[in-house]
Write a structure and sequence with these properties.
305 residues; alpha+beta; 2 domains; 7-stranded antiparallel sheet; 7 strands; transmembrane; membrane; DoxX-like
């Protein structure tokens, strides 16, 4: 089965030594690289020996993958570039990777501008099944994790944003996006489209003229909510969705209370429920500014003419 090696490239405005230290010092490297939870260098007998290290990657549910690595040395190019070659692998059967090879390259440009890139490939376990799992799931995931990590490193060196704060922002942003998508789809699909809950019908009847069918209005409101929920996965600029919710939730709350003031005494009052969603929308606005993204990296190597 033909497979493409993983390639990631990003421009970084930083000094060569700062970029080198952040990527070669294991204590710094493990902070920004999403692929590793910890990296430990092994002592060398001689200065020019390859640098051996061990790594651990936590994969959830108390499980982790531990492996070995060997940095084969660095090479200084005539243009001032540096290259660090790598050989890595693991004997743990839980890992789809057996071993692989790759390199990092540091290319200086004008005025402290750098190009930082990596290219690597690996062999897989579990025969044909492992090859298909790698091609369809694992390889895209590990490539994405590499690119996201490179963008986190870039922001750390250029803006001083710590990797920990960036990952907290990143995961908060996506958890909130998933949450709001689920909320809108659920409340459009279940009580409005599928079951047409009596309280939904009664609320619509209290706000609509007698000549208008409340059933139809509730149904199409449900469709609109479902589409809005799906838009969280289509629209790239989600800040606009957060702004819309910040304005919409107070209006929805006021409308529900005016239609039926007794809802204020319900166990799940629209006042408290929508207020919670309003505050989460404000939080979403706060964390959605300048979120780290793998899209800032180049993922295809430029072919030589």
């Amino acid at each position: 089965m033909k497979k493409n090696s993983i390639y990631v490239e990003i421009p970084i405005h930083a000094e060569m030594e700062d970029l080198w230290e952040a990527s070669q010092n294991p204590g710094l490297h493990e902070q920004w690289d999403l692929r590793f939870s910890s990296i430990s260098y092994q002592p060398k007998e001689r200065e020019d020996d390859p640098q051996e290290f061990t790594y651990r990657t936590n994969i959830g549910l108390g499980l982790s993958v531990e492996g070995w690595g060997r940095s084969k040395g660095t090479h200084d190019g005539k243009d001032g570039s540096r290259t660090s070659s790598l050989h890595f692998g693991t004997d743990q059967k839980i890992s789809i990777i057996t071993e692989g090879k790759g390199y990092w390259k540091y290319i200086p440009k004008a005025d402290k501008d750098m190009t930082f890139l990596t290219q690597y490939d690996y062999q897989t376990r579990f025969g044909t099944l492992g090859a298909w799992v790698d091609r369809l799931f694992f390889r895209p995931m590990i490539g994405w994790a590499t690119a996201l990590s490179f963008d986190v490193l870039k922001r750390w060196l250029e803006k001083g944003m710590t990797p920990k704060s960036q990952y907290l922002q990143f995961f908060a942003y996506w958890i909130l996006s998933f949450f709001f998508s689920f909320i809108w789809i659920y409340h459009g699909l279940i009580p409005k489209v599928l079951y047409k809950h009596p309280e939904e019908i009664a609320l619509a009847e209290s706000l609509l003229p007698l000549s208008v069918s409340a059933n139809s209005v509730v149904f199409w409101m449900g469709i609109a909510e479902i589409l809005f929920g799906l838009s969280w996965w289509v629209i790239k600029r989600r800040r606009r969705l957060y702004y819309l919710q910040v304005f919409a939730f107070p209006i929805l709350t006021a409308s529900a209370i005016m239609a039926d003031p007794s809802t204020l005494t319900h166990p799940f009052s629209p006042l408290t429920y929508n207020s919670s969603l309003f505050l989460l929308s404000v939080l979403g606005l706060a964390v959605s500014r300048d979120v780290p993204t793998a899209k800032n990296c180049k993922r295809q190597k430029k072919e030589s003419a």
